[in-house]
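tool_call: predict_structure(chain=1)
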Amino acid sequence: MAPNHSPGFLAISQEAKKHIKETTVFDVKSRLDKGEKLIIVDVREESEFAQDHIPGSIHISKGVIERDIELKIPQSSTEIILYCGGGFRSALSAENLIRMGYTNVISMDGGIRAWRENGFPLTTH
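tool_result:
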């Protein structure tokens, strides 16, 4: 069940979603199943990532992504798929990366919650 988010957070998240590209968990899973080498970034907190995450994803939390993204993914045209718990923090992060000049950033709508609900694989490593 999705947490009850504050109205202000929902408002800025919905506004961000107007300016970004989104994908579904089904599209990401299908692309992974086809063997595509995707750069998937988990923007949740470190403790959330440690609990479980999408296999092969890297962790750059929302709190530091603008500071660290250029060191981890220097090429601004690289496709980057962001996810969080439900798709709100990843939308906000995507909007900021676009503002920084990244041109191929996608937020995974539904986040890890939707991934989990569909029984898709998770790891703790």
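agent: The chain has a mean pLDDT of 95. Proceeding to next step.
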